[in-house]
Amino acid sequence: ATPTSIMVGTGRAAELGVLFRRGTALEGLAGIRVIAFDKTGTLTEGRPSLTTIRPAGDWTEDAALRIAAAVERGSDHPIAKAIVEGAAQRGLDLPQTSDEQALPGYGLQAMVEGRRILLGAPRLMTREGIALPEIPGDTGADTPVWLAVDGQAAAYLAVADAIKPDASRAVAALQAEGLEVAMITGDARAPAEAIARKLGITHVEAEVLPGDKQEAVKRLRDRLGPVAFAGDGINDAPALAEADVGLAMGTGTDIAVEAADVVMVSGAVAGAVNAHHVSKATLSNIR
Length: 287
Ligand code: ADP
Ligand code: MG
Description:
Blueprint: H1 3-15, E1 18-20, H2 23-30, E2 34-37, E3 49-55, H3 61-72, H4 78-89, E4 97-103, E5 107-112, E6 115-120, H5 122-127, E7 143-149, E8 152-160, H6 167-176, E9 180-184, H7 189-199, E10 203-205, H8 213-224, E11 227-231, H9 237-242, E12 245-249, H10 254-259, E13 262-264, H11 270-285
Parallel strand pairs: 2-9, 2-11, 9-10, 11-12, 12-13
Antiparallel strand pairs: 1-13, 3-8, 4-5, 5-6, 6-7, 7-8
The structure holds adenosine-5'-diphosphate and magnesium ion.
Adenosine-5'-diphosphate binds next to α4, β5, β6 and β7.
């Protein structure tokens, strides 16, 4: 594309709330075959709420929730906010914690009232050799969070996050352009599949550890061709940098924005559709 057509395209995209930080991305986006989305905060609002508490053994809901919320108080993960908010709604007093440690892609650990607490994904419990009881009647559609105290499962919690209102239409529009639409997420398989199904996304990579999103982008490129990746989190930065075109949500972390070629200012999924349209129009005008 000529410098002038790039300038015109960049200006038109900006009017639509899409900032091209690099002119090369305007050209690159027209040639992608795949667009992969992070889930939480990208396809969903990223503000989950607590939907379920099922205490195990002698635990009560409130006894489990006060410990979970105390441990999450220092975390800025969206799941943490949901759990802290859930405890606040019940007016629970939170105990002191010490030795808090984030376990990226897994959850958290800490000491509370002299007991060793683990909180996070089922795979954290598996890794630590903690047996998980069956949850009768659970559909698996929400994101599971397990609480373990001194090596024993104490409660099953679940959080759920609303899909962005324009996500379904945006996915359909990208598919109508002939693109393969994929999801790459650290969340558990069942909730990831449940959201993908609602959006018409068939290619889902779930339970991807933060360091592995980049590898997932490479694999998509090897199989299908040039890849765009859209995300919002700190853990999306390597995948944003790896992708042929990285698109960050303007509502996301600064680290994601810095790693991206394109910023979708409002955080709407339609930003990806607009970006792709402007890119294709820019290239076809000059041919
Ligand atoms: P994503 O944002 O794609 O879900 P993350 O790597 O941030 O990916 O998290 C992966 C999974 O690790 C989460 O779905 C959750 O199960 C678990 N996890 C991470 N941080 C926390 C936390 N603070 N509290 C509970 N679970 C967590
Ligand atoms: Mg995210």
